[in-house]
Amino acid sequence: MTNDVVVRLDGVRKEYGDTVALDGVTLEIRTGEAVAVMGPSGCGKSTLLNMIAGLDRPTGGTIRIHGDDLGRLDETGLALFRRHKIGMIFQFFNLLDDLPALDNVALAAQLAGTRTGPARQRALELLDELGIADRRNAYPATLSGGERQRVAVARALMNRPALLLADEPTGALDSRAGEQVMDLLLDLNQIGQTLLIVTHDERLATRCASRVVELADGRVVRERALERTA
Amino acid sequence: MTAVWRAARAAVRRRKLQTFVIGLVVLLSTATIVVALALLDASSAPFDRAFAAHRGAHAIAVYDAAVVTGEQLAARKPGVSASAGPFGQVSLDLDRNGPGPQGPVTVVGRADPGGPVDKLDLWRGRWATGPGEVVLNQPPPSETRGVPNKVDVTLGGKPFTVVGYAFSLSGSADVWVSPEQMAALHPTATQMLYRFSGNTSTASAVGARLAAVTAGLPAGALLAAQPYTVAKLQASADIGAYIPLLATFGVLGLIVAVVIVGNVVSGAVVAGFRHIGVLKALGFTPRQVVAVYVTMVSVPAVVGCVLGAVVGLFAVRPVLADGFDDLGLGGGVGVRSWVWAVVLLGMPLLVVVTAFVPAVRAHRLSAAEAISAGSAPRAGRGLRVQRRLGALRLPRPVSLGLGLPFARPGRSLFTVIAVLLGVTTVTFATGLAATLDRMSTIRDAATGQIVVHPSDGKSRMVAEGSKPPTSPPTATTKTDSQVEELLRGLPDAARVAAIYGLPIPAVGQTQPLEVVFTRGDIAAMGLQREITVGRWMRGPDETVVPAQTMRERGLAVGDRITLELDGRRAVLTVVGELMDGPPGPEGILADWSVLTALAPDRVVHPWEVMYQVQLHKGGDVAAYVAAVQAADPAIDALDTSQLSDFVVTVVGFSSVLALLLSTVAALGVFNTVVLNVRERRRDLGMLKSIGMTPRQVVTMVLASMALVGVVGGLLGIPLGMLTHRYVLPAAAESARAAIPHWVLEIWHVPTLLLLALAGLAIALLGALVPARAAARLTIAEVLHNE
Prior knowledge:
The complex is a heterodimer. By secondary structure, chain A is an alpha/beta fold. Helix content of chain A is 35%, strand content 28%. Chain A contains seven helices and ten strands. A six-stranded mixed β-sheet of chain A has the order 6-7-8-3-9-10, sandwiched between helices. Chain A has a four-stranded antiparallel β-sheet with strand order 2-1-4-5, covered by helices on one side. In chain A, helix 3 packs across helix 4 (116-129), helix 3 packs parallel to helix 5 and helix 5 (145-157) packs parallel to helix 6. Chain A is globular, with a radius of gyration of 17 Å. By secondary structure, chain B is α+β, with helices and mostly antiparallel strands. Chain B has four domains: 1-56 and 235-376, no CATH class; 59-199, no CATH class; 381-445 and 644-786, no CATH class; 449-640, no CATH class. Chain B has 24 helices and 20 strands. In chain B, the strands form three sheets. In chain B, strands 2-3-8-5-7-6 form a six-stranded mixed barrel. The longest helix of chain B is centred in the C-terminal third of the chain and has 41 residues, at 694-734. The radius of gyration of chain B is 34 Å and the shape is elongated. The chains are: A alpha/beta, B alpha+beta.
């Protein structure tokens, strides 16, 4: 693990009308860290994730990811930032139903201009590493929840992101599939992938994260280092 | 019902864009249909109404006074509900100053303008009661409005005073005199006017009734008869050409409306699955759900229909007014109640029926099924196509976009049909404009660019919009042949023709036949290109006849016409049909030598002749016109090489309607893209989250409709060409005209390529706004609102 800062939030504030979702959040995540953001519903976890992923813009404060000041990027700049710097995993997978697993994974690279052949080759390697290469031609509707989330992870890793963001990655999975995804995230972190996981699941946090950031009412109320249980 | 109404009202408010699109589509379609139906109705109904009001004659019969007596004719006949006559009738030469009929005219002796049949409108003055008084069948000249001036004419060489101007819808005479005056004029025939009971809808039905009337009369008693259908055809000819054109646009508009409304409503149901689930979970019965969706669509449809009817009324009024001015029908033309009933009840009904089918899908959907829609993965559609597209060397946003239509084949099909109809309309309008342009070119050639009219010292010919001459007119001192010689001798003159029209009695025809005698280069000027059937004249014993005259007089190629003037006869064979003919009164064309043969002593003055001039290519028309007037100030020359009002009107309205229907088609595409984007919000959010740029989003959405546009365009072009091929001859037929085949041959590769782009343009323009909206979609909101 190096000490390079991948994520730096400084006094980030987000308001939706009269509602304050984030209230001056300051946070740093270093390369190779696995950070879990926890807190009750409505505390601002997902909002924080959206800000870091460049999916939404803060009302105040600055966000720097891997050297990029997100506040200075226009919509296209943010899209390119997401394409090259981050990978995202969602609770409900968000795969394209019309494409088989392999093409869902290859999509991220193809949007970046990689030709179909090399993109599919890289996607196949990732699916193989995640143990679902044999399901490469299956459509999302025929995959199990765990398999779908693996495909989503493979897609997130396609462009070798500096930061992997996971929003309740086990929230829609049964316990067995959830365990598999946890193992997968742990393995990724152990080979150096920086992780930021938003979750309610204490087990997921303690299993995968090296640090937990607790939010309440849009503020960081507590940070604690963890000893992984795996 | 309150709950249904509240739910529908809430749905309308939430779907403002969808509501607006439905309303706009129905508005534009309704306006188009009002115009088409009103014109269709107006083409026949005003005549029928006026005919009833004037107690028009179903048949005008002319009997030989030497063979049958007035008493025999006045006796009650079977099948006759009313009759007028016997009236004395004679053909005399009318000579006069000023506008109106001249030459041989039909003069009838009548005691009054009323009576049980053929009630005349006395427009100005009074009825002829004394000797030397006549009433003319024509609108009064403008200078006699207010206090009528004394106007003198000569009839059969004797002086008469015009005491009134009247109008006979049946066209029973050109001039009326009192019965006593008629006796003094020695009538050669007796006129009877009949109204029949029973079926009189066709000329043959009228003929059958007349046969029953004349059954007991001596042989040869009936000289000629004219059914009222001739006058009806004449009345509807002007407006007739518009009807098939407007009806075509109307039908296209109707189909586009049905397709788009169907698509919009289907989409509303599909997009509202969750809403339907919630309604059912709240306790709405399946019927109430159907009612909510039908009401939701009906509200904008009714508003659009009412507004569209008003727009249609404003659009059709000027066309109706222009078309019926010459019929003497006053302000009797309007949009009749059945048109309002059909439009105001039919359009909403159509929308409701269209809405009903997809609403029934909502009826069948279970609440759980509906509520879970969207969160569970779907078994995708068009998978094989997507897979193949993914393997192509296309930018990924393009290949993703091209695959989108296959995921919703039904909706895509409707959208293709909307674009197809839009392109069909554009193609038809383009073909129509090109054909009319060609017809106009023929007309320009036939009129010879410049019309020359020597003055008789009483009037001048002034170009439309020009100031009247300041000095009083003087008669030209040149003879007919000298004028022709002058015109041929001026710079740039390539061809000169002389045209002289004269009504001449023809054996077997009740009314004299207008004969247009021609001399010079008339054929070479381009009139030959107007031939629609047969060929041009090869000798003085042949004639070509304009299509309208052919139909009015029941002539056909191969028929022989016997002209008779002052005891001399000329027999002409009809060898061809003309689209139109030279400007001026329409009549059969004959060589000048026929006139010489029929009236060898007749002196034709130059002011009775119309001269046409065609210049060498590149010749200066204005300079030639100036040269004519410089050579003889008593000769007027006009530049006639401009588009006719009809061409301008038709090209104008067809362009407007093509634009209108293309807009409606683009709205259909717009609606489809809005629905697609709404349904694929999650996918779009995901794609943006993995780095799809706004430009790539726009590209993907436009690509999804580009395919629809190309397919719609490629199918719409042949359909538009077929419509053009069949509707234009039908339009010509309605106007009792004909068009040469070659004016329909207007399609060229560059035109077709441009038209193919029209489909793409409609699709891309329709998709652009929602595509840009999709690019601006807030990802966080979409992805976390599962």
